[in-house]
Amino acid sequence: MAYVGQDAGERADAGCPFCRAPQLSDEQALIVHRGEHAYALLNLYPYNTGHLLVCPYRHIAGYDEATPEEVAEIGEITQTAMRVIRATSGCDGFNIGMNQGGIAGAGIAAHLHQHLVPRWSGDANFFPIVAQTKALPRLLGEVRAEIANAWPGA
């Protein structure tokens, strides 16, 4: 709510949230896994319960700027996240993607991040479009703990 209550100028001055997140505790930043080159955290504004973002630590905007090591680890984290979320939530599928640049819909275009959105048969993902409402039955902290605890090696 603190983020929503700020005006756009205050948010812009706050710095990059994907550079700041790794400096916080996992609970504060909603981080579910830290790798060597990239990490995964819950989206603060999820489309569905368990909506993760996979980000490199390095502040780069484009996928084409990522090193081979970053690309490989983003892929590995994404695959593991799919397995963990499927096991913990019983989802039926996923939407996976990156919006590159503001014109393409990236909310934070300056720092590369990949979305991993769990989907269930009959989910209410259409709500944001037709009702300007999101149906999220679980608290982010609970979802973070469940996914982080189920991550291999946790």
TrEMBL record:
GO molecular function, a single term: catalytic activity
Keyword annotations of the record: Nucleotide-binding
Active site: H113
Entries under Gene3D superfamilies matching the protein: HIT-like
One protein family per Pfam: HIT
Positions contributing to substrate binding: N43, H115
Residue stretches making up the HIT domain: 17-126
SUPFAM superfamilies documented for this protein: HIT-like (SSF54197)
Superkingdom of origin organism: Bacteria
Motif segment (Histidine triad motif): 111-115
Protein name per UniProt: HIT domain-containing protein
Organism, scientific name: Agromyces seonyuensis
